[in-house]
Structures are given as C-alpha cells and as structure tokens.
Amino acid sequence: MSDQTRMVLFILAAVLVFALWTKFFVPPTPPPKPGPPPGQKAAVTTPAPGTAQMNAAPAKPVVIPTVEATAEKTVTVDSGLYTVEISNHGGVVRSWKLKKYLDLETPPKPIDLVHADSSQQFGWPLSLMLQDAQQEAQVNSALYQITPEQGTLDAPAEVTLHWSNGHLDVLKTLKFTQNYQTSIEVSVSLDGKPIPCGVAWRGGFGDPSVDSEAKLVTVFYKQNDKLNSLKYGKLGVSGNSSEPLARGGPMEFLGLQDTFFAATFIPDGSDLSLWDWTQWHNVTVSGKQESDPVASMAAGSTAAAPLKMRLYVGPKDLAVLSAVRPSLGELVNFGWTSVIAKPLLYALQWTHKYIPNYGWAIVILTLAINLPLFPLRLMSQKSMRKMQKVAPEMRAIQDRYKKYSMRDPRRRKMNEEIMELYQKHGVNPLPIGACLPMLVQLPIWWALDRVLIASIELRHAPWILWIHDLSIKDPVYVLPIAMGFATYLSTKLTPQVTGVDPSQQKMMKWMPIFMAAFFINLSAGLNLYIFTSSLVGAGQQVYLNRTQPLPAPKSPFKKKKTQ
Q1: Could you tell me the CA-to-CA distances from 138 to 131, 135, 163, 166, 457 in Å, in that order?
Q2: Which of 43, 225, 483, 546 sits a CA distance of 20 to 30 A from 394?
Q3: Is there a contact between 110 and 78 (Cβ–Cβ < 8 Å)?
Q4: Closest CA to 490 of 538, 546, 437, 536
C-alpha cells in the first residue's frame, strides 16, 4: 500500500477509537444543583488559595509618566523670621537666612545658615539619601517640576517638587509656617513600589563669619531620653569616621548645631533614624583651599512609605526651643553650671525688658547679687576684730617656738596652744567670713561665662563705646585692666590682721594682677561683672572700716621708758 493509503486508514481508525471511547467510557454529566429558594441570594464560594492567581489574567505593568522641568527655577518663601530660597535643580534649599540675626561682615547682613561654597562640592540642604548611590545621584541632580513655578511666597506657604524618569518617581512637599518650623513629606518609588529614603542637610551649617566656626558644629540625636552629641573630633576625615556613620531609631529628634543655631529633624508620622553623619576637609572657599571641616547628616526611615517630619531651623533661644514639641530646650547646654546659669539668664532677660541694654542689665544683676553678700563681709569684719584682739598672744606663742624647726615634734605643742587661744576667745581659725563671699561668687562667674558664650540673647550684644559684643573679649583690654585695679582697691581696703603670714599677704597683693592676666581673654560681660562686683565690695569695705574699725594692733612687749 502506498503512504497515502496508510495515512487514510490511520485517520479512520483513530476516529473509530475516539467514537467508541466516548460512547462507552466517558462518565455521565452530573445533574445540576438545585438553586436557592426564591428571594434568597446564592452563597459565595471562596476559591482555594492560589486558585485566583492561577485563573486571573497577568497584571499589567505600571505606566509611570515622565515628569521633568526644562530649566532651573527658584522659589523664595518669606516670613518675618526667615527667607528661604528653593531650587528645582535637585529640589534643594540654596539659602536659609534668619532676619533677626546678623553676621560679622562689613556691613552686617542677615546670617545665612547654608554654606554655598561647600554645598556646591558636597551637596545642598534637603537633598535626598537613597540606598542606591546611582539612584541618589539621579534624584539630586534632576530638574523637578516646582509648584508654584517661581516668585516669592509669604508664609504660611506650600511648595511641591515632582520628578520622574519613568522608573524613579520623587515627590517632595514643603509646608512653611510663620515660625521656625517646616513640615516635610517625601515619597520615593521605583516602578510604582515605594522605597526607603532620607532627607539630608549637607554642605555645612551655622554662622560662617565666626572664627573656627566648623569646629563648633556637632551632629546630635536624642534617643531613650538621652541627648547624644557626635563631636568634631570623632567625625574623621573624608568620611572615614572612628564611629559608625549610622544610628538606628526611633529617635525623638536629630540634627546639626553650632553654638547659637540648630537644624533639627523631628518625627511627624515616621520613625526617624540617623542615616549618615560625615565631615570632609580641604574645602575650596572663594578659590582657596581651607582645612576647616564641613558637617553633614541625614534623617531617614527604613519603612517603604512616605517620609514625614518637621524641620526646625533657627536660633537656640531657650524660650523658642522649649515651645517646640517635643521640647528642644536641651540644645542650650550650660554644662554642669545649668542650675545657676538658667536662673541667671532668666534674670538677665527679665531685666532687659526694662533696661534694653545687656551691659547695664549685667551691672544691675551684679548689684542684686552683691548686696545680699554684705552680711558675709560684716561677718568677716567681726572675725578680723577677734583675730586682732588675740594677735599679740598668738604672736607671743609663735615667738616661743620659732627656734624649733618645722619638723620638730614640739611644733605640735605650739599649734595646740594656739587652738586653745582661739577657743578661749571664740575665734574661728579658718577665715570663712573672708573667703565665703569669694567662694559664693566663683560658681556665679563660671555660670555667667557659660551664659555669655552660649546664649543667643547675648550674641553681638553691645554695651557702650568700644564694647560691641559682650560675649567676646574686650578688644582693647580696658575692662580686664579696670577689673584688676578694682580688685586691688578692694583688697587694699580690707584690713590685714596682725600675725598673718607675710607670704599670704604678698599673695593677696599679687592676686589682682593674676586675675587681670587670667581674665584678659574671657568675655567682656564677665569682666564687667567682676569689675562692678569689686567696686561694690570696695564701697562696702569703706563703710565697714568707718563703722566697725579694727582696734590698733598691740605689741606684746612694753616700751622702755626714756631717761
């Protein structure tokens, strides 16, 4: 048989087998199930897990439109406290000026907390940080569509920035208030799926016009009710830090600060952690290589969801910071002197309401502190009167034992006799009355020095004539010299008790010179306080010398009669 005949017979046999199999071997079709009674809905049967995915049609890919501006544009937000310039090139801040605070330039102008020179090299404030470095570079160099497109807005105001390349999609929303706080919401997605992100403050921070400003900048974070500072010495060089560059959250707040200003990220619906903190060297400023470091940090969340936070950018004013929730008052750090420093600051602020000059406010505060110390001076005068009374007997005891060396055991007998003499006349062997005023003043000096150098209220606060800033040293050193003279005058007016060690008397004479040399580079405000305090002390001593004079010293030897 030919091949064609065989093919026809094979097809006929296959059809016959299929017909016979269908006739005798296929099971009968089950009868249909009865439907529900009239008026009752049919029950819904839930498919087994995985059945829906198997039967469903494949999902269509997400189509993300491209969103990008064609040119760089800037929008300015203005309030009574600040002026912020926002650029759509990278969706960053190019300038953040505080209107109430001036720099040290000539002529002075509102301080700009954004350092343009270093930001051009290391990134700008409010740039984004992503887990993929290439994606991060894309979103921080893109041209965002900004709304409104340009111009100046009066706070409260809202600015949105949107960019997409069809895969990456970024949306930033900035809501500015009339105070120093700004609400920030950022969402980043890749092919329609949200990815984690962080918001960074790069390029340095603080007052660029002060000396060694960058060395004062610290990265900080508060976690578990403890404020932690990552200081300049631990930030390393070129990003190589001696400590980890990230800290896990959640955190109460975190940011950057210098002596007088702070940029603080506060959670507002997202758990924040410290994603990065670095510093670099060899910054090019005005065409010159400088070795000052530049601080940077980023606050982010590992959640694949929109990032929500508030940003405080403003002065470290204790009253303003305390009004923020959570309170940022801890950023004003007076160290161990806080117990005294804060009341001093409140007293100066209260006095400044009525006397709008912090120099004269310091003078009034000095008087208010020294007048209550007068009873201590009176106690000292009475103690010296008793000492003067027993001085001849004490000197006679000393003369009896002066032939013995200091190591001789009989010297102990001399001390016992002097102590018996003190007890007999009720004399305190320790000059507590004389030392107590000084001991009381020492912690006040330390606390006032911290207030002067760490309080925004005293920054650039003038007094008179050449004193243009009480928080720094006197430029012509008049106040330290005047303070030394006033201290010498007060010491000179204080009567010397007969029998006092001559070396001790010499030390008291040299002390004003030592003080003037030590305080010459300290703040003018502190020198003004000590100068005023010494003048008050001298006046009080003149009064005591007239009203409670010490008796003239008596010689233990009777004068010989002249023949």
Answers
A1: 12, 5, 10, 13, 42
A2: 546
A3: no
A4: 538
User: Amino acid identity, residue 536?
Assistant: V
- CA–CA gap between residue 276 and residue 300 (Å, rounded): 9
pLDDT, tens digit (0-9, with 9 covering 90-100), for 166-224: 899 999 999 999 999 999 999 999 998 999 999 999 988 888 766 554 457 888 999 99
Where along the chain do its domains lie? 74-333, 353-547
CA 449/CA 527 separation, integer angstroms? 10
Amino acid identity for residue 552 in this structure = A
Rounded CA separation 525/359 (Å)? 7
Return the ∠ at Cα 558 (arms to 556 and 561), rounded to 5°.
165
Residues 6 or more apart whose Cβ sits within 8 Å of residue 479: 467, 524, 527, 528, 531
- CA-nearest of 155, 47, 34, 161 to 93 is 161
74-333: CATH topology:
Beta-galactosidase; Chain A, domain 5 (2.70.98)
Q: Are strands 74-78 and 82-87 parallel, antiparallel or unpaired?
A: antiparallel
Q: Which residues pair with 247 in a beta bridge?
A: 274
**How many helical (H) and strand (E) elements, i.e. helices and strands, does the chain have?**
13, 21
Give the global pTM: 0.74
What radius of gyration do the chain's Cα atoms show?
Answer: 41
Helix (H, G, I), strand (E, B), or coil: what is residue 400? helix
Taking the CB of residue 71, how many other CB atoms lie within 10 A of it?
A: 7
